[in-house]
What does this fold into?
Amino acid sequence: MIIILMSYSCAYESQNREKLESSFEDNFGFKPPESIKKIKLKNRGYFDFEVHYMSFTYDSNVLKKIIEHDKPLNIAENNNVKFGIIIEELEKDASPPSWFDLPNKNVDRIYYKNDFLDHTFSEYYLWTDKEAEMTYLYVHFFD
It folds into this structure.
């Protein structure tokens, strides 16, 4: 009897804005304007799941455009039970990048949706830390 164990794992991380413009456009349907000074990205996958982390400089007009592009989105307000549930889900992630800040007291709302991709499970969370002036995107899916 022969047993073959195979492991598939990949990860990609970058903070180079020029290299990440295409990732921003792939996610949101438009190129980032000059007001987006910083973009950070980490993608990781293992077998049948993938996680995408992105952060970028906050711009209210860009956020409105993203919300329009990605709708329908639900909203969890900071004082809502769903807000806490989302934070608990995000805290379960075993290896987010060091620059990826989870929602905190500086976050008013989290935009979210579930089961929006052609996979067994998918989740999308978008929020802005207004004190840090950064917007964060978390997308996770698996088959």
